[in-house]
Amino acid sequence: MTADITDGARQFIRAFSDPEFVARYTDGPRRFVPGLDGLHRMTAILLAERAPEHAKVLVLGAGGGLELSALADAHPSWTFVGVDPSPQMLQLAERTLGARMSRVDLIEGAIDDAPAGPFDAATCLLTLHFLPAPERLRTVRAVHDRLRPGASFVVAHGCLPREPSERALWLDRYAAYAVASGVAAEQAISMRATIEASTNMLSPDEDGAVLRDGGFRDSRPFFSALTWHGWVGHAGSENLA
């Protein structure tokens, strides 16, 4: 999964194995992602549009347990399979979920380690931006092939425009939001530099194309908050493997 990941993305991924970073993680995403709680609520609504009452949901990039907790609270009859490559983040997810773990199976690994399904819905939040475009497309196709026809897939992650001056402007806004949310200026500047060095960040148009090429041909944007964008699509009847 990580063979072609750039150095900038690797810095983020290594952090997910750092005990100090993991201990602080629960508060971190809300300081960098505008409207994170609203994103979780919207995700629950969008998945529920086509999911049955007792849905089985695949959560890719489940470490930390934030979206798992939100989805489990919103839909008490759903069960979940959460997949993440970091054992430390999965341990945090288990602590975050508490009693809700009775409805969750956690798997260490990537999409290839997930069960074949079929799942009634899937989500991947704040994760796909770590992957280069070819691996991102392969991952999306593998999610598609684990969903029953018509099932909803919700994704949201970081995007940046290609034009250099526009890219710099949006990176500045990313850092400014973090500082306004209580992140130390030095940390926000460091995060900005790490993201700027990553070549995995696609533009919103390019990311939308990945979803469509991965089988979610009706995918539409539903979320936009500074550098963060989200889409919802539905699995077709064809297997793309």
Helix and strand arrangement:
Layout: H1 7-15, H2 19-24, H3 28-32, H4 36-48, E1 56-60, H5 66-74, E2 79-84, H6 87-97, E3 104-108, E4 119-125, H7 133-144, E5 147-158, H8 164-180, H9 185-197, H10 204-213, E6 220-225, E7 228-234
Parallel strand pairs: 1-2, 1-4, 2-3, 4-5
Antiparallel strand pairs: 5-7, 6-7
Helix pairs in contact: 1-9, 4-5, 8-9
Short account of what is shown:
With 241 residues, this protein is an alpha/beta fold. 44% of the residues lie in helices and 20% in strands.
Describe the structure.
With 241 residues, this protein is of the alpha/beta class. Helix content is 44%, strand content 20%. The chain contains ten helices and seven strands. It has helices at 7-15, 19-24, 28-32, 36-48, 66-74, 87-97, 133-144, 164-180, 185-197, 204-213, and strands at residues 56-60, 79-84, 104-108, 119-125, 147-158, 220-225, 228-234. Strands 3-2-1-4-5-7-6 form a seven-stranded mixed β-sheet, with helices on both faces. The longest helix has 17 residues, at 164-180. The radius of gyration is 17 Å and the shape is globular.
What's the shape?
globular
Helix content: 40-55%
The rounded Rg comes to: 17 Å
Unreliable segments of 5+ consecutive residues:
1-12
Question: How many DSSP helices?
Answer: 10
Rounded mean pLDDT is 89
Q: What is the helix/strand order?
A: HHHHEHEHEEHEHHHEE
Largest sheet: 7 strands, mixed
Terminal Cα separation, in Å?
A: 17 Å
The strand order across the widest sheet is 3-2-1-4-5-7-6
Number of strands: 7
Strand content: 15-25%
Q: By helix and strand content, what is the structural category?
A: alpha/beta
